[in-house]
Design goal:
two-stranded parallel ribbon; alpha/beta; Rossmann fold; five-stranded mixed β-sheet; 181 residues; 2 domains; globular
Length: 181
């Protein structure tokens, strides 16, 4: 969900997954389609919102990823609910986003956007960042059990990413869809 230019979609397809990527940005989807074709990867890319897709494909997926999208949409709880609708009972949904606190403001906005210029200025709005407790609440309300929340840490000097215990800035949330009643 929110596949953009298809980086994760391509990695999953190379690992043997059957991949469907959805996004609302035509330019990103065009780039994703072209790159997948150049790489000989079979990926279905759709320009469709997640709510419409979930209504059409209820319970159809074993795994859903929604990476670095929730902090950019007007109703992240609706994206979580639609993700829960689209995954089969027992299936996994992974979310990644940025926490809302002083540390994340300093690192994800001030440092990443203004000092290091890793992403364009204005990419993130502090008010749209999401505390892990908020995401966990939306997940539970949507029928997703939270299995794990881990921090995602990036060292800009070494270019190394790693998972860790602290979800203070970026974090990854793994959930599992409960059986439907």
């Amino acid at each position: 969900i929110g596949c953009g230019g298809g980086l994760l979609s391509e990695a999953l397809a190379r690992a043997g997954a059957e991949v469907v990527g959805i996004d609302l940005a035509p330019a990103g989807l065009a780039a994703a389609r072209a790159h997948a074709a150049d790489e000989g990867l079979s990926i279905e890319y759709l320009e469709e919102d997640v709510e419409t897709h979930a209504a059409r494909m209820s319970g159809a997926y074993d795994v859903i990823t929604c990476m670095e999208l929730l902090e950019h949409v007007p109703d992240p709880a609706a994206i979580v609910a639609a993700s829960a609708d689209a995954v089969r009972p027992g299936g996994s949904v992974f979310f990644s986003t940025i926490s809302r606190n002083l540390k994340s403001f300093l690192l994800a906005i001030v440092a990443a956007e203004h000092v290091l210029r890793l992403v364009p200025r204005g990419t993130h709005e502090y008010a749209r960042l999401i505390r892990p407790s908020e995401l966990a609440g939306w997940c539970r309300a949507s029928g997703l059990n939270v299995n794990d929340i881990s921090g995602m840490h990036y060292n800009p000097l070494t270019g190394v990413h790693r998972l860790g215990a602290s979800p203070d800035v970026n974090y990854l949330c793994h959930t599992v869809r409960v059986e439907r009643a």
